[in-house]
Amino acid sequence: MSRVQAALTVEEARTLQQDLGEPLRPGLTPAELDDVEEQFGFSFSADHRVFLTAGVPVGQRWPDWLHGDPDQLRKRLDWPVDGVLYDVENNDLWLPEWGGRPRVLSNALAVARRHLAGVPQLVPVCGHRYLPGVPGGVGYPVLSVYQTDVVVYGWDLRGYLRHEFGGAALGEEPEGGGRVVEFWSRFVE
Fold it and tell me: How far apart are CA 51 and CA 46, in angstroms?
């Protein structure tokens, strides 16, 4: 059983945001976060909600959940699944639990798309770094996702921010292993 760190606090998130090198907008309210989740059909993890409550980083790499272009936000949400589908189409990716691969590409993509509809939604944090959208979830790893090239960039949101923006080492995997993100962790190298 993996050990999960304590939940991120607003005060700690504000301290971590000082190292981002980006301007910050005021944080989102719980009602605004709920509206984003409803509009896009996903849930922020608890740590992600706290981070966005503390402040909203402004910059091209950061999703602007309140003022951003909804089509661009949708593309960022779709990016991880689209990357898997790209690998199905162009790199012969096929997972055993999907059954036999159909010989017709359009059928193979349809089968893969059906299976991918049930995997955890990854929610963009910054660039192509994602947190799983697990309602109430804390301590999930931040994953760098580019097609099926998936790398842990932080064992949790706190560690990611320290690693990516504070210059801290990623550090050793937590005792007992890091939290597993269903489906996505299988691609972690």
Answer: 9
- 3 state SS of 48: helix
- Residues 6 or more apart in contact with residue 71 via CB below 8 angstroms: none
Instruction: Please report which confidence band the pLDDT of residue 4 belongs to, taking 50, 70 and 90 as the band edges.
Output: low
User: DSSP secondary-structure letter at 135?
Assistant: B
Integer Cα distance of 150 and 129 in angstroms: 10
Q: Where are the beta strands (DSSP E) in 92-165?
A: 122-126, 129-132, 142-146, 149-154
Q: What is the tens place of the pLDDT at every residue in 81-97?
A: 999 999 999 999 999 99
State how far the Cα of 68 lies from the Cα of 108, in Å rounded to an integer. 34
Q: What is the pLDDT of the chain when averaged over all its residues?
A: 94
Q: Is the pLDDT of residue 1 over 80?
A: no
Contacts of 162 (CB under 8 A, 6+ apart): 16, 19, 154, 168
Say if residues 43 and 81 touch (Cβ distance below 8 Å).
no
pLDDT digits (tens, 9 = 90+) for 138-179: 899 999 999 999 999 999 999 999 999 999 998 888 877 778
Rounded Cα distance between 63 and 100, Å, is 38
In whole angstroms, give the CA distance from residue 158 to residue 104.
Answer: 44
Contact between 27 and 14 under an 8 Å Cβ cutoff? The reply is no
The angle at the Cα of 11, spanning 5 to 17, to the nearest 5 degrees, equals: 90
